[in-house]
Amino acid sequence: MGYARVEIIDGKDGLSNSSVTAIIKDRQGVMWIGTRNGLNIYDGYMFTRPYKELSNLHITALVYDTLRNIIWTGTDKGLYAVEGESGTVKSIGMYEEWGTDRVSALLHLQAQDICVAYQNGTIARGGYRCRYNGL
Q: How far from each other are the two terminal CA atoms of the chain, in whole angstroms?
């Protein structure tokens, strides 16, 4: 019986923190890795941290929206959207009173809606027509 090839990639290779909290892959095959110290992108060779807004936040959840090419990013400071094409990062304050609370989980629903579970017990469901700052 053969063995699977295992490659270890970690902080020694440029990952911002060894505590990985979420991983997704976009349509170009690039891995987006959330850690306790920011969002990392891994192209199979090296890590980058191009988003200053997310570089030191604790990433709690990641969901990739293939239709819009958006990486929904849950953090300890609320929900963010990263537009895959332009790299624009937008804070998504869905409602004033809890929009900046810690995101516990994300779920991308069919076509246009996303559900966001916040640590305070609130679950929000919204579409792109809602208060998503132009996304």
A: 50
pLDDT, one tens digit per residue, over 13-53 is 678 887 899 999 998 899 999 999 999 998 888 888 888 89
Q: Number of C-alpha atoms within 13 angstroms, CB side, residue 104? A: 9
Token pair listed for 23: 């991983």
Find out whether 130 and 94 touch, Cβ atoms under 8 Å: yes
Residues facing residue 91 across a β-bridge = 80
Give the residue among 131, 111, 115 at the shortest CA–CA distance from 123: 115
Query: pTM, whole model, 2 decimals?
Result: 0.82
Kindly report the average pLDDT of the chain as a whole number: 81
Q: Cβ neighbours of residue 30 under 8 Å, at least 6 residues apart?
A: 41, 42, 43
Residue 128 CA from chain centroid, whole number:
17
